[in-house]
């Protein structure tokens, strides 16, 4: 629980900002989330609504990354048993066309339910490594609304506003600012992080309620084909990794490539009737808020206009792992704020 510092302004209402705000509100802080875009809005720079949104183990994570992923996976797993969260449990087959060079040892063994390495002779041709496990998938609009409702039901406040500068979040009585601006951290005054960059991703949503298993095929050049079932019968097909591209218009040739790749990976997608039989719900393009050095998660002391010390904690740069590391990084923000608060108190 907070002691000296009780009021917090969180900037940003994407999955990271909402989760961080909820964690802090539940832990005794009085939180207000400040953002221009909210669940239900669709803007290319509001990146969370466009995500595929499921958790898969990332190979060769550092210890902090593993911790964030584990915390998020376990939290979302528990949410999958609750109504109205939009979170479901799904089996996943995860394959690689190259040798991960992990000596057969999974990087998060014992964390994922029913986790097993697939024997090489059971893998498709040209696939070098494969694992299977049960993971979680999120119906993005429903899950974001659930986060926001949980936050406000817990007493959290909201304000819809565009901020030009970090200092705009410094209000009288607010001692802590948490910066969860994602891709907008590149242009927000007072942050101006030139390490932040967009990775454009194109998806195709189809109606295929018979598909119950997620599948992913990763290549050494970091390209990836994936199939993600959602709660309501939609299946998300992807994807692309277009670094420093921001065009929000879906490309027909790219969509065709995605459909062909996904049909090859998952022939049951069209039930033997051909791609033309697929019911396409929509084509979407979103941006991943990536950062050159990975997630920026650190606390610093700044001064407000009254000359008082303010804790500023940064939590952005999640790239394609916003959903899969949201709970873990939010818990880290809580710990960073506690540590910074104690350091300030000790100076008194």
From TrEMBL:
SUPFAM superfamilies: FAD-linked reductases, C-terminal domain (SSF54373), Nucleotide-binding domain (SSF51971)
Binding site for FAD: 47-48, 181
Residues that bind D-dopa: 226, 288
Cofactor: FAD
Residue ranges occupied by any FAD dependent oxidoreductase domain in the UniProt entry: 8-333
An individual GO BP term: D-amino acid catabolic process
Entry keyword annotation includes Chaperone: no
Gene Ontology MF terms in the entry: D-amino-acid oxidase activity; FAD binding
Protein's name in the database: FAD dependent oxidoreductase
GO cellular component term, pick one: cytoplasm
PANTHER family to which the protein is assigned, alphabetical: D-AMINO ACID OXIDASE (PTHR11530), D-ASPARTATE OXIDASE (PTHR11530:SF11)
Tagged with keyword Ligase: no
Swiss-Prot/TrEMBL keywords: FAD, Flavoprotein, Oxidoreductase
Family of the protein in this entry: Belongs to the DAMOX/DASOX family.
